[in-house]
Amino acid sequence: MASSLQALERWVNDTAARTRPARIHWCDGSEAEYAALVEQMLASGDLIALNPQTHPGCYLHRSSPSDVARVEHLTFVCTPKREDAGPNNHWMDPAEAHAKMDALFDGCMEGRTLYVIPYCMGPIDSPLSRCGVEITDSPYVVANMRTMTRMGASALARIEREGSFVKGLHSTGELDPERRFIMHFPEELSIQSYGSGYGGNALLGKKCHALRIASHQARREGWLAEHMLIVGIETPAGDTHYIAAAFPSACGKTNLAMLIPPEGYRREGWKVWTVGDDICWMRPGEDGRLYAINPEAGFFGVAPGTSANSNPNALVSIARDTIFTNVAVTADNQPWWEGLPGEPATDWQGRPYDPANGPAAHPNARFTVSARQCPTWSEKAEDAQGVPISAIVFGGRRPSLLPLVMQARDWTHGVLMGAAMGSETTAAATGAVGVLRRDPMAMKPFCGYHYGDYFAHWLSFDRPGAKLPAIFHVNWFRKGEDGRFLWPGFGDNLRVLEWMIERVEGRARGSATPVGTVPQAGELRLEGLGLPASAISELLHIDEAAWQQELEAIGAYLEEFSPRLPEALAREQHRVADALASRPRMSRSAASA
Ligand code: OXD
Ligand code: MN
Prior knowledge:
Blueprint: H1 3-19, E1 23-26, H2 31-44, E2 48-49, E3 59-61, E4 75-77, H3 82-85, E5 90-91, H4 94-105, E6 113-121, E7 130-136, H5 139-148, E8 150-151, H6 153-162, E9 166-171, E10 181-185, E11 190-194, H7 199-202, H8 205-221, E12 224-226, E13 228-234, E14 240-246, H9 253-257, H10 263-268, E15 271-276, E16 280-284, E17 290-293, E18 298-302, H11 312-317, E19 323-325, E20 328-329, E21 335-336, E22 366-370, E23 387-395, E24 405-407, H12 411-419, E25 422-424, E26 436-438, H13 451-459, E27 470-474, H14 493-504, E28 511-513, E29 516-518, H15 533-540, H16 544-559, H17 567-581
This protein binds oxalic acid and manganese (II) ion.
Manganese (II) ion binds near residues 227, 249 and 278.
């Protein structure tokens, strides 16, 4: 047996000796294995079958009510030196973390099955992909990992060939929030997660591996592991531009990745291709462009708000062979959440629906589905070389200040835009919702090392020969004085993507402001929208006085990463602040001038 498989077997045996499971099952990823797991979970109540006429192959899982989201305060990066984890992470000394986890894992699988899940993040034959093995005692995790990763025999063969893999150990434990930790050991390429069955805490290939650990690997090896969707936009001329976009959790990445062009655009021949909705691994190709893969094979999407209006492609995707978590059900046993027609009969906790108990579906209820079920799934998602990226987009929920779209003048300015990103918090993590927090590159909960070093890593891609993507910032969430969203969003976001493509192709001139280039009047195609002129000028308005304050706030925020804050980024913040300070005050937006 090859030595990598021996090392794997040794680790499995050592883990079994500590956790003392009743049996060990090596997952092969087959249909038969999945069918047997489902049978077992139906019998145990872990899964509930949904209406087989309307939703064939669909199941509901109800999690413990105290285990419904990522737990950032219990998530640690355990580097030998605290400063390497940075102020952006909770840190624990690796020895202390191991001692704590060893005690928790001691005997925790008694009476349970230990599952060994070999998986590959990314197309199985891509040089960009990386493998891992998750050990878990949760059949729900196995079923989800099968959808979200390339899991089983082919991954094991790649591990045998490559000799290295990320080790993830997970147990649902007693689901006690007081005995719950998600630990990352980047130097050991290992993850240990105890006490939660929730996706982001328990499907270790996703946030733990593909972002926190991969961000380390990426820094060492010269690539980027990012919290980004990847979407292909095919123009009527037949060219496809791939765009990677970073928005914080539950800010519409899945919707943008699957958008349906407005009617007029469809008639003209615009098409949208979905490569990924959450994670993007990118590295420079020989031609100097950045090439990206989606390391995941499925979508773990937020269900509430997914509707015929916001994301019809997602609705089609999840009409069969989908696992729903914490949704409500209708009287005829269909999955239901706020935003869908019809009525809930039973809420996410299995109680008869009563509005007094809050929403019927948990706000962070999810669906797990194979990406291939999406009508706009792109075959390029399996391309070993990845797709070339034309534009990188940053964005968040900002009710004011940030215009609908602006372009950075160069890479360094774009990195500043990403580093300065902020957004209102959502239900994807525990804690208060609707509070503005800085979330550089949408990686605040996921960057596995010091943000100062991360910004320096981003800046390092700007080197001779590089043909880097243009960088933009968008804000679909700006509100008018009446508190209502000014921009319709969803499919109409294509109008903004079209402007980006025109900028990339050198056809739109744009209007430069100190904080970025916004569309000139007439450059955004708005026909058929019925948007009042005041709304569009409000959407593109740059309030320079307010921006001066924002630049001060950004400067103060970036100082938190001193002394590791790259000098070039600090200089860039000064450059923009100075440009704002030295301008005669503009009365209205450049776009409406
Ligand atoms: C996710 C998240 O699940 O970002 O994708 O929380
Ligand atoms: Mn995410």
